[in-house]
Amino acid sequence: MLTKSLTFVKEEIKEIVLILFFSLLTAISSKIKIEIGVVPITFQTFAVFLSGIILGGKRGALSQLTYLILGLLGLPLFSRGGGIYYIFSPTFGYIIGFIFASYISGFIKEYKLNLLLSLLVLIFANITIYIFGLLYLINFIPKEKLLMIGLYPFIIGDLYKIFLLLLLKTTLPQVHLE
Question: What is the pTM of this model?
Answer without folding.
Answer: 0.94
